[in-house]
């Protein structure tokens, strides 16, 4: 009877390694050793693992010349963390990586010029700025510059209540670092920066921005308070208290339009005719009539639809809905 264990008792016979296998294994080991700290290579090109939770409507997707170094830089300088495992392509380039940063996520990959994915270094610059909230602008700025970032604007307090700095990271991407330091009203912003147009929607709790936008500085009306009631109901303008103006007339200031203006009762100084821009001409025509006003005529021009109106005191104005693209 044959010995069924004979093969097991035989000595080991060396077999030359498969050259294709050894080449592939060596390449995988080299790629693994080159990955950033704590990141494991993926053995297949598949969908990356991602953190739970929704993504924003637009996620920044950065292209860089050296993704491994970029991942390390963003982790150490900005405190980002790697989400899941980056996709490593057969040629060793990172095809996709995700970083959790602040309350959001950014995507990142090496350059792939063959499909048009190139970095700011290849393009010679970037038109995009990445806006990042940080706990301490000065510390974040100093850390970034010490790690090789170029300073484009050192930290400074801004009129709108934020402390900002701007840097360009070693991979060509521009970052605006910001830290809120105080709450500033629209009025205070306008005082600090008179050359800027400050709208009320930039300030929490401020009156809502009006629908109709006035193109001139003053309006004239026989009764300022009555005019205030009419236009507040029609457009949502926010009037300050009425009182004596600089030349003795009754005056009230409107503070929630992009171009500030006022109403006075000096009828010997009538205002020019105004065109108020609206989004829905027909709805505003109905509203004028509901408030006791009059619609004199409705016309259509190349610039859009227009309605000649009178308010409830007989003062004329136009409603204008711009034509698409005008």
Short characterization:
This protein is an alpha/beta fold. Helices cover 23% and strands 29% of the residues. The longest helix has 16 residues.
What would you say this structure looks like, in words?
- The structure is a single chain.
- Strands 1-4-3-2 form a four-stranded mixed β-sheet, with helices on one face.
- Among the domains are: 58-180, 2,3-Dihydroxybiphenyl 1,2-Dioxygenase, domain 1, CATH 3.10.180.10; 218-322, 2,3-Dihydroxybiphenyl 1,2-Dioxygenase, domain 1, CATH 3.10.180.
- It is α/β, with parallel strands linked by helices.
- Strand 2 (81-88) and strand 3 (94-101) form a beta hairpin.
- The chain is 23% helix and 29% strand.
How would you name the CATH homologous superfamily of the domain at 58-180?
Answer: 2,3-Dihydroxybiphenyl 1,2-Dioxygenase, domain 1
Q: Report the end-to-end length measured between terminal Cα atoms.
A: 100 Å
Order of helices and strands: HHEHEEEHEHEEEHEHEEEEHEEE
Assign the CATH class of the domain at 58-180: Alpha Beta
Q: Supply Rg.
A: 33 Å
The helix tally amounts to: 8
